[in-house]
Every structure is written in C-alpha cells, then in structure tokens.
Amino acid sequence: MALIKLLGLKSEAFHRDGHSWLCATGLPSDVTIEVGGMYFHLHKFPLLSRSGLLKKLIEEFWSESESACVLKLHDIPGGAKAFELIAKFCYGVKIELTALNVVSLRCAAEFLCMTDNYGEGNLIMETEAFLDEVFGNWADTMKALETCEQVLTYAEELHIVSRCIDSLAMKACADPSLFNWPVPESNNTHKTDGFVLWNGISTVVKPNPIGDDWWFEDVTSLSLSLYKRLILALKLRSIKPETISSSLIYYAKRYIPLMNRQSNFNETNHVNLRRTISTLSEVDQRALVEEIVELLPNKKDVTSTKFLLRLLHTAMVLKASPSCKENLEKRVGAQLDQASLVDILLPNMGYVDTLYDIDCVQRMLDHFMSFNHPAAASFYPCIIEEGQLMNGSDSLTPMTTVAGLVDGYLTEVAPDVNLKLPKFEALAAVIPGYARPLDDGLYHAIDIYLKAHPWITDYEREQLCRLMDCQKLSLDASTHAAQNERLPLRVVVQVLFFEQLRLRTSISGWFIVDNLENSQNPSGNLGHPGDEGCRQIVPAEDQVVGRDEMKERVHELEKKCSSMKQELEKLVKTKKTWRIIAKRLGFKQKSEPCYPKEPKSCTFKESVASVNGKQSHKDYEAVH
User: Fold this and answer.
1) How far apart (Å, rounded) are the C-alpha atoms in residues 134 and 180?
2) Residue-wise pLDDT tens digits, 54-104
3) Domain residues for 92?
C-alpha cells in the first residue's frame, strides 16, 4: 500500500473554473500566477510567508508597478499540477504526499525556496522526511524513481535519482524477506494465518522462496538511462553476474520484439511475449541493443550462447554499430561449443549473395580457436576401425564438439550455389584434423557441395577432397565414397586402398586370436567362464568342424583380397572410367565373387605379413 501523508488543517478552499484556480476566501485576489496555461488567482500574504522566491518576485513587481501583480512561473518543476498543491499548502489546505508526487513537490519546493526560514515545517522539510519513508519501501521507491523522469534535471541536482537507485540496488542484493515488499501468491488458494484453504481443506503451507529474479519485471518499467544506472549500481555491489545477465535478457525481450521471434527461450517466455512493447522506434531499439551488449558481464558462460546469438541476429537486423557486433561475435566465439546448429544459421544481411552469413561464423570460429590453444595432437593409428575414436578423444571436448558443429553447418550451407569454394574450404580447414574422430560429417558436406556445384574443375575437386582423411571414414561412408561418381579418381582409389588395409588388419586379428586359443587349449578343450571353474569338454568332431569353417572363411577372404589387388593394379595402369570399375569390383550391386586367373595368388600368410611388413608400404606406393 502506497504511503500517504496529510498536510494542513483546513478544508478544501480551492475550486477550478476552466483554466483558472480560485481561492474561496472572500477577499479579492491581488496576485495572479501563470503556470503552463493555468492561472492561479491568489493572495500575496500566504505566498510571502512560505516561498522566498515568490516574496522576491512580488516585492520587485510592486516596486515597479502598483497594479495587480502578475507572475509567470513556466519553469517550475512539476508544472501546474505541482503548483496547485503548493498553493494549497501555502494556504494551509490539506494535501496528500504520495510516492507519485513527492519528487515533483520536493523539486518545486526547492525551486520556490520554501525553507524553514519562511515558516517552520515548510515544504522542503516535509517532503524530505517523506522521501526517507519512501526509500524504505521497494514499490514506493520504484514509483518515485519513475516520476524523476518528469523533473530529471532538478532531481539530479537534489540527488533524488541516485538515492532511489542506491535504495533499489541495496534491496535487490539483499534478502527480500527482510523488507515489506509484496509477494505474488497463487490465485486458486486463500491464505490465512499460515494456512491455505484449497477445495475447502485447510492445510499448513510454507511460504514459497523468493528467487533472485523477483525484481526483474519491476525494473523493466524504468527508462533505459535509469535502468542502466541501476545495473551499474548492482555491479558495484558485487551482485552475481548471472543475475545481471538474466535481468538484461528480461529487459531486452520486453522492449525488442525481434528477441522473441523464432526463439527457443524457455525461461519466462510466456511473460515476455505478453509484455513485449513494440512501440519503440528502430533507432531506440538499436540504441537499446548496443547498451545491453555493453552491460553484459564479460565473464564466460554467464550469458547463454543462445541469447548471445539471438542478440547478434537482432543487432544485424537493426544495423547496430560494428563494435557492438564484434563484441557479440567474440562472446559467442569464447563459448561456441555450447551453440546449436539452428542458432548459428544466421541469415545474410549484407550485400553478399549467399543465403547465410558465412563470414560471421568464420570470425566466431576464429575467436574460438584463439580462446582454445590445444596441445599437439597425439599419435593415432593410420587405420581406424569401425566405431573407434582417436587416442585421447574418448570424451567430447570443446574442440570435438565444435568440429561436429562446423561439419553440420557446412552441410547446411553447401547447397547454396553462390557459396564460393575458397570460403567453403577456409571454414572447413579451421578445425584441425585431430579434432574429428571420424570424417563422415565432413565427407557428407563435401559430397553435397560437389553435387550443388557440378561446374567446378577437376583440380578444384582434388583440392576440396584433400580436406578429409579417407582413412577416417566409417564403413558406411567408405562404401558410399567407393561408389560416388562425383569424387575424383584418386580419392576413390585411396578409399579402396584403405579398405583393403582395414580388411587385412581384420584377417591378422583373427589369425592371432586363433593361434592364442590353440596355444591355451592344446587338447582342444574349451572352458566357459560361467562354469565356475569347471571346463566343458567339446567333442573333437565339433572342433574340427569349427576349424574347417574358419579355414573356408579365410580362404574366401584371401581370394577377395587378391582380386582387389589385381583390380587396383589394372586401375592404375589403364585408368578406366568409374562405371567399369564399379561393375568389376561389385560395388554397384551384389554379384558372384570375382575369382582371378592368378598363377600367383595371395596366400593367407602373405596377407598377414603385408600388414606388419613392407607389403602394405609397396601397395600404397603403387596406388599413389
């Protein structure tokens, strides 16, 4: 409930007639004061006894003229409304001091020099005492601060604005339960004496705790200049930067409609959509965005990346200053690993023909790399098995996360026919190779780009495909790449070569496991862990059948390995077209195994030796 104080002892003696205020005292008026188009017909003695300025003006007027005194006070703070209350106060009429009028009355009293030298308990003393009471209440302080906008110059000189802001900052940083502030309650309950009546049943309830955001909505009623001063005062009081950031988000989403369009914010979104004010001009919204960016805490991870990207998009639409956009790009770059793909798909607002702002993402990625100085990549095997990650990459590091984000972004922008190859390559090359456990995402983006840009030269295709590592493709990606007519011939050969090495590595592994089992079970007995120390004897005939199946499988793999080797040799010599290669190697559709006429077929032992010895090196040189 707002504070109200009654001053004066007499009943109402003023009445209004059009644009004139008359005092019903029975005596003719000898002083007329004009304030903002209103005329106050008053008497000199009540005014002389309360106001030093009016006493001076009236005496100066009468010293020059004996006619009725007419004064103009158009500069008085609060205008005609404030002077009406002051006139009543001078006549001893009861007036009400409230949080909404005390600031203008305090400034007007100072303007009229209504000190105790012109009567005990004058208006300056009365309004100052009431202001002290207002500062003890959050809601009344808010009202008083809002009215300071009307008399801002005088309120600043009297330090009323700073006192209001200090009072609000102190309360926002303190426990709200210590002050007499209204707390919202549920509409479907009736609370009495610590009990709640719900559906006719009385139950004891504990008061809901008040969060740090209880003051967010109240301060959104302040103008940008006053709100900024409040935020700075809160920072000086060392309030949590997360709280500052949340308040700025709330304020921005109320006054900038673009902050609520196509956004995925979950926090208090229903309130913000309802309270959004769209009456601000584009210039005012641009100034608001720039101020909010300056007020955001510089600490990393305090402001969500989603909000920063939405703010960056808004700054682009409103054509904010370059320094504002650069500030946001650096903030996003510092925590780019927290961004999602849909958030970085920023539409292009410049004169470039590309659909998305590739340059902006490039700059944010460069900032991310400057913030993250990774150590040298650890050594990892040349051949990566299906599902195997690089050494030291078992968990998703920020670099690995951003690598996946960039690959997804490249996939989204690749269909744009206006996207130039150098820009695509530059964006893909920022992420070091060791940050990608697998290059499937990068291969997918390259394939889409080649499909959307069929006019690029063979040399450009070669350069583009150098971005990916063929030996870091999964089995599915390798199978697709081996049949991909858009890839250069050299890349297809590399994919086939590494698949052959991967196959030989698998054969070698089976051979080693088989030898280990035979050495551990020379009698042919196989034990099972579930037998709790008892070994189950497998019949000899079953063991013979199992070995025969394994030998047959190895023999088939030897044939296929030899066939692939011969086909690769023919491919290097004759350089036939891909369609012939695909048919002969059987990638286009399932066909019968190709059995070559080899007089010197590759044996199983030679296959194993080629993995561990010099054979794989010779094959690699033959391919290249």
Assistant:
1) 12
2) 999 988 887 776 667 888 988 999 999 999 999 999 988 888 999 999 999
3) 4-178
